[in-house]
User: Fold this.
Amino acid sequence: MNEAVQEYYGKVLQHSDDLQTDACCTDTAIPSYLKKAMAAVHDEVSARYYGCGLVMPQQLQGMRILDLGSGSGRDCYVLAQLVGEQGSVVGVDMTDEQLAVANRHIEWHREQFGYAKSNVEFRKGYIEKLDELGLENESFDIIVSNCVINLSPDKAAVLREAYRLLKPGGELYFSDVYADRRVEKELVDDPVLYGECLSGALYWNDFHNLAKQAGFLDPRLVEDRPLGIDNEEIALRIGHINFFSATYRLFKLDGLESHCEDYGQAAVYKGGIAHSEQKFLLDKHHLIQKGKMFPVCGNTYRMLKESRFADYFDFYGSTDTHYGIFSGCGTLIPFGSYAVSDEEEDCGCC
Ligand SMILES: C[S@@+](CC[C@H](N)C(=O)[O-])C[C@H]1O[C@@H](n2cnc3c(N)ncnc32)[C@H](O)[C@@H]1O
Assistant:
C-alpha cells in the first residue's frame, strides 16, 4: 500500500486543490499569530499542503518536534517559527517528490525567519519504521502529524514508535481522518479512496483501543468536524460511511487511569501561556479560564502537572482520597458526542 500512496502524493496530486474531499479546508478559526506564521511559508510548500487540521499546540518555544508524514513541509516551517531558533523540527516522509519540495526551501526559510542556522531538517523514511532513522528514545517533546496515520499500513507500529520517541510528559498532537464504522476491505484496497485519506481511516473506537495499547491511556479529542466528499463518484462508493477530521492529543504519562477518577483535585490557570492568556484549551472537555478554580480528574491533573504546562497552573489536592468516578467525563468521540463511562452527573469539567 505504501507504493500506491507514494505514487498518489508524488505523481498524481500536484496541488492542494487536486484532493477530492474538503480535508484541507480547515474551518477552525485560525488565530492571527498562526495566519502570520503560515503566510511566511514559501508558496511552493503551501501549494502542496494536504493536511486536514491544525497541529500547533500551545507553548512551543524551545521544543524539539517530530512531524510524521511531513509532506512538502508546510507544518514544519510553521512550527519552526513557533519553537524559535533554540527549538528544532524534524520532518519524516517516504515520498521523494514531497521531500524535494521541502528540502528545496530550507535556506529560503532560514533567511525569512532571520535564523543564523536552520532549525528544520527532513528525513526520508517510513513512519512505522522510525527505528531505521537513528532517532533516540525519548528525544522529542512533541510529535505532530497531519492527515498521515490513516495512510499507514501498520498504525499500531506508528503509535508504538511515537510513544518510544516521546519524552515522558510529551505529547502526540495530531490531526487525522476517522470513520464512524470499520471500512469494508474492498474499499480499503482502492488506491484512490485510500490515497484520498478515506478508506484507510480507522473506526474511531478501534483508534482509541490502539492508542491505549501503545501506552497512550487517555486519548483527548481537541476538535473535530465532518469531512465533505466533493467528488460524486467517490461519494457514491463510500458515502454510506461518515468521515471526520479530528485532532487528538495523547500524553505520554505512565500509569494514567483507564477512566477519569475523582480525587477532589483542582487546578487554577495562572495565565502566561503564549496566545492563551485568558483561557487554556486542553481538549473539548476542558477550556480552563484564568484565575478560576477548575475541578479535575486524576488524569487531567497529571496532564497539566507533569507536562510543559506545569509552571502555568497552581495545583490543589492529592490522590490520597478517592471520591468515585469523575462522572460525565467519558471519552469524547468524533463527532460532537461522547461515550459516558458511568451514570451521567454534573461534572466540573464538562
Ligand atoms: C495527506 S499528505 C499530508 C502531508 C503533510 N502532513 C501536510 O499536511 O501537507 C500524506 C503524506 O504522508 C506521507 N506518508 C504516507 N504514508 C507514509 C508512511 N507510511 N511513511 C512515511 N510517510 C508517509 C505521504 O508521502 C504524504 O506526503
